[in-house]
Amino acid sequence: MASGDVKKFYGTLTGAAADITITKVPFRPRVIKFFATGGKWGLKIEDEVGMSGNNYLSNTAADTGVTINDDGFTLANGADVNVAGSSVYYECED
Predict the structure, then answer these.
(1) Residue 14: left (phi > 0), alpha (psi -120 to 50), or beta?
(2) pLDDT in tens, 19-50
(3) In a domain, 2, yes or no
(4) For the chain, how many structural domains are there in total?
């Protein structure tokens, strides 16, 4: 963006240990940060080396399970920030 402004969108979800699709982000996120119960966190940066497809980085290791969509993202079953019953805070940036 020429103005230097960064769009941000924040939200929460409850981990389901099943695929969760968030479709309410008013832009295509380029960066997504996750902070989950138990001190787990994750980071997805579109087009970053090592983060293609559904790859992302977490505080436990490189992981898979985050896919960026035009209006949000999908958090897959098995992603370490998607534990059943955990509270997950996410922050999206363009």
Answers:
(1) beta
(2) 999 999 999 999 999 999 989 999 999 989 88
(3) no
(4) 1
Q: Does residue 3 lie within any of the structural domains?
A: no
How many other CB atoms are found less than 10 A from the CB of residue 92? 23
Domain extent, residue 62, equals 8-93
CA 7, 12, 13: angle at the middle one, nearest 5?
A: 130
Q: Does residue 1 lie within any of the structural domains?
A: no
CA atoms within 13 A on the CB side of 63: 22
- 24 in any annotated domain: yes
pLDDT at position 62? 85
